[in-house]
Amino acid sequence: MASRDESFMRRAIRLAQRGAGWVSPNPMVGAVIVKGDRILAEGYHRRFGGDHAEVDAMKRAKEPLRGATMYVNLEPCCHWGKTPPCVEAIVRAGIREVVIANLDPNPLVAGKGVKFLEEHGVKVRTGVLEAEGRTLNRAYFKYHEEGMPLITAKWAQSIDGRIATSTGDSHWISSEGARRYAHGLRAAHDAVLVGIGTVLADDPQLTVRLVRGRNPLRVVLDSRLQTPLEAKVLGAEAPTLIVTTSKADQGKAKALRDRGVEVVEKGEDRVDLEGLLEELVQRQVLSILVEGGREVLTSFLKEGLVDRVVVVVAPKILGTGIEAIGDLGLKRIKDALGIQELRVKRIGPDWVFEGWLKR
Questions:
Q1: pTM value?
Q2: What does the domain layout of the chain look like in residue ranges?
Q3: How far apart are CA 312 and CA 208, in angstroms?
Q4: Does residue 88 have an active-site annotation?
Q5: Which position among 54, 75, 291, 354 bears the catalytic label?
Q6: Distance between CA atoms of 47 and 17, rounded to whole angstroms?
Q7: What CA–CA distance (Å, rounded) separates 37 from 40?
Q8: 130-157 pLDDT tens trace
Q9: Which CATH number is 4-143 given?
Q10: Cβ proximity of 191 and 217 under 8 Å
Q11: Strands of 196-283, DSSP E
């Protein structure tokens, strides 16, 4: 049976999840304020630039909070950013105790929030549902601890492992429900990435249309700048970053830039993926959804850059066609890429497999 602390912290984590897709590069945070077993107020970080969870909860309280306990899944901030420090508001409200799941890995906080609270007479406890809190903000922790974005590789395939027919036709392998789910994934990531092959074959928009959510940054790997000037991915609905090489046609690069599209060079013959990821980190991109095609998915997997895979499997057999994943250079079964924390769910006629690459 869950303890009282765990029950309230689990509620804070559920509240935090409501900010998914809206708060990055900030973390998802929820807060619950209680006296005894009674919840006085609760809140969460709703939008980047808006009130943090602690302040959102305090503003919703209908009675004084002096002597109350606050449950929050991440250490309250102690610095000025787009909003004032949350720790100061907590002290002013007279909150007696703060219970935290995770310390904030951001070096601007990193224990300083706890120290401030304790120095001002607030009791602090940490580590309640620590694993669950870390799972919630996996991308945020990876960004601040490793200096790299969290990468999800996603594709839809037939039951025999094809992402398109032998002619390149792929519309549509998966069902409308699965495509709606894919749009939800786009909304939950800071960037969506494809290769030039996908742009030329499918002319995708790479926007969020089937669900409510923010459009991610669209990233196209295009080593020779073959992206047509009329491609849908260059539309004004969302920003687009074309990543090319030093050997690309500079005239085409200028034409793209004249259309308001950003073009950056990473590598000479092929796009340098690690260099690209470093660039995206500088842009505060915490999470990337890699949607294909085959060459791009294979490269990310082969270079060990993928954290999570999401595979939609449709009950169709295509026979000869384009494989989802190409040669990974593996010669023995024991060298296969392992998946852990595997979850399987059904969406209409399709099955979705989600899991994390073993490290």
A1: 0.93
A2: 4-143, 148-357
A3: 18
A4: no
A5: 54
A6: 12
A7: 9
A8: 999 999 999 999 999 999 999 999 999 9
A9: 3.40.140.10
A10: yes
A11: 217-221, 240-244, 262-265
